[in-house]
Design a protein that fits this description.
7 helices; globular
Length: 210
Amino acid sequence: GLIMASRKGNDYFEMLSELVDYSCSAANLLHDTLLNFDVNEMKNKIGEMHNIEHAADLKKHDMMDKLLKEFITPIERGDIAELAHEIDNVTDAIEDILARIYMFNITSMRREALDFANVIIKNCNELKGLMKEFRNYKKSQEIQKLIVNINGLEEEGDKLYIMSIRNLYTTSKDPIELMTWTDTFKYFERCCDACETAANVVESVIMKNS
């Protein structure tokens, strides 16, 4: 059994799924941190987030090493690499949000930030579903629906972004608050974009291989 297992090659679909697990962990940590926001806990949370991001990076590098040595892959090597990169970007984008909140020493949470964190959790869950379905893309009834859902969440993120910035500028006159939250909301929106980019890569890979 052992020899067969090693000759079968690597399960890239499984590895991509595991990469999304890190994105999901990061999204949950972000949401949890904002929901129970405590300025004194931020340094610890940044550390926890960095550990998730670092583990995801190691996983991606390990995957790239395997990919370089692999002779035959289920879909093109470049496509697997690009997808791994885009999923990794999602995790990085989540870390970037928390980094902003920490760096700017934001001391009270805004309602919209929580709404955004919720959209990001949904996005990562849909991406997770997408990776589960990906290996059966030729037969899957679900895959197109998942891609549409992620596109919908990106639109939701856009609307939320406009509303968040508008609420900010209609309720605050404090230049520091305006500056820090304008920038932070931009990073929330970027994260939603990163999720959509990953879904778009999946879609184009399916088109190429159909």
